[in-house]
Amino acid sequence: MEKTAPSVLIAGNPNVGKSLLFSRITGLGVITSNYSGTTVGVKTGHFSHKNTGYKLVDMPGLYSLDVETSAEQETVKLLDDCDMIINVVDATNLERNLNMTLQLAEKRIPMVICLNFWDETIHKGIAIDHAHLAKVLGAPVIPVSALQNTGIRELLEALDHAAVPAYAETPDNRWAAIGGIISQVQKLSHRHHTLLEILSDFTLHPAGGLVSALLMLVLTFWGIRTIGETLINQVLTPLFDHYYLPAVLKLIAAIPWELAQTLLVGQGNDIMRSFGILTTGIYISVVLVFPYFLAFYLIFGILEDFGFLPRLAVTFDSFFHRIGLHGYSSIPVMLGLGCKVPAFMATRMLATKREKVLTYTLIIMSAPCMPQSAMIFSIGMRHSGAAIAAVFGTLLVVALVTNLLLNRLMKGVPPDLFMEIPSYRMPSLILMARKLQLRIGSYFLETIPMIIIGVFIINIIDTVGALQTISQSLGRTLAVILSLPEEMATVVILGFLRKDVSIAMLAPFDMTTRQFVVASVFLVLYLPCIASFFSLIREAGPAQALKVVGLTFTSAVGVALALNWAFLAHQYISLK
């Protein structure tokens, strides 16, 4: 490998601020969070210091260089290609972090030790003599707060004095040596617990964790719905209707080719039925889906930077293990209760393909997204609270039974939950804004094009007349096997574009309670919306995505049939 600049490797335990330090030094935007596992791949950037160019590599976090998995082995190999190391250490947990420091010392590579979270050590009453620690280790030790952006300049200055640590121990003596170092350089002073520490203790208790998790879920969904609906109704829909759409229609009308007009703006005045790239495509992706995406990641960013998500994973780990999943799966599943698009993206934190497939299935089947849930409650109240409970209860049972079956069919054992619980930290508004900007950019560059491609394909099918034929055949099928109105075929087709609209379109039908429950369950399960579908393809690959969707569609038909027959059987018995 040809080196054009000295290579500096950022190494350390998970969740010690390596990615944030990388971003501070290089100026590159990266997703950082207050829980381990944020960096799942290697990130590379460049920076200059004293007219010298450097390559900076952000190494995924490891607790030890004695690794087992192939991914961890590849990570350790990064040490073979670096010229020096910045060892990032959590200064609030110095004893535990020094194990990695001494292992890195055995590699005989020039090193600088970065004591991160220095501001928190002062706040917690931890006094570290960093100058004496540098003498003991034989390498520069620099106090830094990457969050507060302090100590970065001093850290870069120390690169000129990077040294091979003189302190190295055999594995048998390493922890004894660490104890000796701690006794020399660290002193603890008595202080009272802060409010955040009291809250942390409460949320780690089994009962307190469950109460706080349920309360946070309720507040999260309320916030997401409020922000999403406000943006849709008060901001984006008026802008689309009064400014964007008239301008686009006027511009496209000047194009002399009818086929081009059909593809770009579609046919007819119904924005959801025109299937135009610049009308339906933009309306779905920007006006309908984006507000909920924005609301999700705004609130999700607060929770992850605050440090709540690892506690959520711990709280639900026991339950998720019963269906073959890791506690970490609770995070994307929680997101899926609001919107499937960010939920599928959040599965990147899961380690194995098996975990991801099980989580994909649970995300789709466990409950409708937030807009669908709102519509089910709105229309369901016309019937009864029992009808609403029947819809959500059926979905929950189906999701759990399906995952239990998949857990038996897919060989493997969910990994034990080994997770560092970080301290609660007040989020930085600047860092949250940067992270939200990165996620919005990812949505516009990756998700919106796939939604538009999907709308384009449907437009082609509609233009050649195949959509009407499909609708007629589907309507007859729904009437025969599910006892639903034939006109519901249009609802089913539109549901692929926008799921909450499909539920809302049940309102004009004079449905019985049986038909409402059957139709709602079927519409939630049969297919993910177009945005979710292409997001799933992007995360899982086309083949795996089609398998998951095929399973959920089969389940939707089977469950709807069973529900319909159960209602009919109950009515028959009641008549007798």
From TrEMBL:
Coiled coil: none annotated. Gene3D superfamilies: P-loop containing nucleotide triphosphate hydrolases. The keyword Transmembrane applies. The chain crosses the membrane at residues 202-224, 277-303, 323-345, 357-379, 385-406, 440-461, 473-496, 516-537, 549-568. PROSITE patterns: G_FEOB (PS51711). Residues 5-165 form the FeoB-type G domain. It comes from the Bacteria. This is FeoB-type G domain-containing protein. It comes from Candidatus Raymondbacteria bacterium RIFOXYD12_FULL_49_13.
